[in-house]
Amino acid sequence: MAASASAGLLVLVALVALPLLRADAQVVPAEQEILPLAEADRKRLEKQRDRVAELARRHIGTPTGGGATSDLRILQELIDSKVVRRDQVYDLQAMGVVLGDVMVQNLGLHWVVVVDRYGRSRALRSPQRDDLVFPVTMISKRVVAGVPVEVRKLYESIAASFASPG
Question: What is the CATH number of domain 2-163?
Fold first, then answer.
């Protein structure tokens, strides 16, 4: 019975984790509208950046900011030290904003708003391609699902996907 329960748990974890790995980047389908950031979106992003910078300053001693790749290490330290609990989705998504800023700074992406049947989301888009990346939820959905988060690997997988011909 214990082996059966373990196998069932493994299948459940696989079913939860697989979509998480695939859902971070996508090509823009016809039913999505891509818009520039509104002032309210800019303010929300800034507020979330400030929140993560404060968490990092208080718990690690170094604030995040500017989209430097060193922010990846700081985000990982915040995750590994469990500064932010899995029920603190706003803070986890704020960490995703900082991850997105690293992508903006280093991969040439830019923030946009995506409006679709699910609502309004902030995403990153390449000026050369129609691919979208949703960094705001990259960290939060993994932490909430109990899936280990490796921030640098997330960043590198997105960097590789934008480096390949599209």
Answer: 1.20.120.1090
